[in-house]
Amino acid sequence: MKRRVTVEQAFGAVLRELRTGTGKTQETVALDAGLDRTFISMLERGLRQPTLETVLSLSRALGVTASKIVEKVETLLGN
Amino acid sequence: MKRRVTVEQAFGAVLRELRTGTGKTQETVALDAGLDRTFISMLERGLRQPTLETVLSLSRALGVTASKIVEKVETLLGN
DNA sequence: CTGTAGACTTCTGTCGACC
DNA sequence: GGGTCGACAGAAGTCTACA
Question: Closest approach of chain B CAs to the CA of A22, in angstroms?
């Protein structure tokens, strides 16, 4: 009974983990993904949610597949 | 040279394929996913794009993982 | 059962600025 | 390098209704 993690929070955690793993800055990822730096910040903090297209853009910027990202999110959500 | 398919179109095709595979109607899927029937219609026709939360809701309604859905989308997009 | 249309609400995503 | 704020355009998602 301890699963109070939202989709936003789970995705944010995965995004931050993957980004820091590559040693990239939020700004670099934003540029590579064609997104705004402030939006990456909000995503990592679990304040916003991505669309499917955004997940795909981020996956390319991070050098992983989008399905792998979603898989990690599902794990955090308890799947 | 196979980047003519948009994310919307790829997702719509995957969604329709999975839904018809279960024999469910758009209305049933909508109810199970907690979404609107007209929105499912637009998603399948590639006129709209889902957020990550919507992909997760639909995956539960369809009895597959969200990562599997995204994997199929990536395949259609040429990954 | 599905497509479409309009009107509407909420949220994604951008941008400039400042800390 | 990252957090935050406010203003904004556009898209996600709902609902009623009719073909």
Answer: 21
Q: What separation in angstroms does the CA of A19 have from each of A27, A35, B23, B32?
A: 11, 14, 40, 34
Contact flag, residue B35 CB and nucleic strand D, below 7 A: yes
Q: Whole-model pTM?
A: 0.92
Cβ atoms B11, B51 nearer than 8 A: no
The answer to whether B75 contacts chain A (CB < 8 Å) is no
Q: Amino acid identity of A51?
A: T
pLDDT tens readout for residues B28-77: 999 999 999 999 999 999 999 999 999 999 999 999 999 999 999 999 99
Domains of chain B: 7-73 (1.10.260.40)
Could you tell me if B35 lies within 8 Å of chain A, comparing CB atoms?
no
